[in-house]
Predict the structure.
Amino acid sequence: MERRTYSSGGPYEPIVGYSRAVRVGQAVYVAGTTATGADGRIVGEGDAYAQTVQIFKTIAAALRGLDCRLEDVVRTRIFVTNVADWEAIGRAHGEIFRNIRPACTLVAVSRLVDPAMLVEIEVDAVAP
């Protein structure tokens, strides 16, 4: 099966040696994504909702880069540094996935790579 990769140009991709997303056949896997903007800085510092919105913009671009859409997402995994932010994060998630209804997991973690990162999300999709 053909394997395709997508890079968002994030600062950690070349250092760690990973792709933002990988497509093998119809399966698309998007790596853990944070609210890192094009300039390498965190978008929405201190605001879990704003970070989640930015994350889904990055994820949507990665999916498009591999001929897939948010509507094709079947699973989301959300990692948060403060579980009390779940409602703000859930609201942003619901704005996109309310009708799509992928399987979803939300887990609190002690911290992410950068202390300004409040949320990290990965998704799996099945391309049409």
